[in-house]
């Protein structure tokens, strides 16, 4: 059980089953749910189901209350099983504009970095959610990029901004500035087993799972880099068609680290090496591997 946190004006208590009654008063409000995954709740039972799911899940959730006591006004949480530790926050509309969310987020960041040993935390915020963006930037998160998402209740997709902060930035106060937002290209690899391919990329190549869809998975996303919206991204999609031993497609990963060091780690992990590190005439030092399904990946950086 995680600890109760206290700030000057707030008490943050671990989520409990009976918090559903308080939270329903916020979840039934359409303006509060505009940027959430689901629409406004129509019954307390719907909110209770959500709370039960949060309690059964791998995340860590605190309800937000005033120091004087009273009902739960919202929550701040760490999302479990995410490649980069993710944070979410939610507050009853009647209490917007009081600075409660940023105050609670600061307390949860302190706890996450100091007690949970997190090295970074990430937020995904709808671009239109200006209030949430203001909270992120006020606390000190830096914008890292953007990506496209669509909630099931929406007719069209929307842009989500990725904000992130590292433990070092939080502790040293180096919080200013945002990275330039950019779209990313993510090739889709057809694979006979999405779960096995994702495990190979994570265990052998150092990638992180962004998501797996289905049980067993039929689609998934993996990435190599510090933040979800940066670095090398690959999507994995289930196919029942046989793959050639060496599929006629390859991928180039521009690296931000030492080529030879990565090569040695892959070699020690038993990765199939297609070509050892070589200084190429076009000014890059590169090596190549083949993954568990025969796809070619070349890694390089300026020599």
Automatic annotation (TrEMBL):
The keyword Transferase belongs to this UniProt entry's keyword annotation: yes
Question: Gene3D superfamilies from the xrefs?
Answer: 2,3-Dihydroxybiphenyl 1,2-Dioxygenase, domain 1, 3.40.630.30
UniProt keywords, alphabetically: Antibiotic resistance, Transferase
Q: Name one GO molecular function term.
A: acyltransferase activity, transferring groups other than amino-acyl groups
Extract one GO BP annotation from the record: response to antibiotic
**Family as reported in the entry's similarity comment:** Belongs to the bleomycin resistance protein family.
The protein, known as: Bleomycin resistance protein
